[in-house]
Amino acid sequence: MLKSIKVRDYMTRHLVTFRADTDLFTAINRLLEHRISGAPVVDAQGHLIGLLSEGDCLRGILSGAYYEAIGGNVSMYMTTEVETISPETDIIEVSERFLRGRRRRMPVIEEGRLIGQISRSDVLRAVKEFAQHEQGHLAVN
User: Fold this and answer.
1) Are 15 and 40 in contact (CB under 8 A)?
2) What is the pLDDT, as a whole number, of residue 62?
3) Which domain holds residue 93?
4) Cβ(38)–Cβ(90) below 8 Å
5) How many domains, in total, are found in the chain?
6) Does the pLDDT at position 128 exceed 50?
């Protein structure tokens, strides 16, 4: 049953993260280098304080172009209202939240600290593995 599959089992644990004082262009370079469209922003203790997306970076560049002062730190452009999820949440609930919020990924928080991230593709992988396991189980019986 899909409800038995938890976020913890499919989340990505090794994340690219930024600090609030990371230079915007350094962050943009890391997003491009890792071919990702956004990354969590954490404090020194690993607590999530925001997310920086490609859209946030574009906004920063555009606003800087108008004022002829492109740049600044991640904290100036990051999104601070971030929907998070527990590692014990089941895959069905994550899927529903993805569809409702139209997000592509969600940070996973345990005891106040960022421990990973779950994406739509992680959920699809979980469902695919579950379906393959169930088909294999039925073929044996």
Assistant:
1) yes
2) 83
3) 2-140
4) no
5) 1
6) yes
Q: Among all chains, which residue has been given the structure tokens 């499919």?
A: 10
Task: For residue range 67-125, list pLDDT tens digits in order.
Answer: 556 778 999 999 999 999 999 999 999 999 999 987 788 999 999 899 999 999 999 99
Residue 91 tokens, joined: 């895959």
Q: Measure the CA–CA gap between 24 and 18, rounded to whole angstroms.
A: 10
What rounded mean pLDDT belongs to the chain? Answer: 87
Structure tokens at 76: 């100036």
Token reading at 111: 């005891």
CATH number for 46: 3.10.580.10
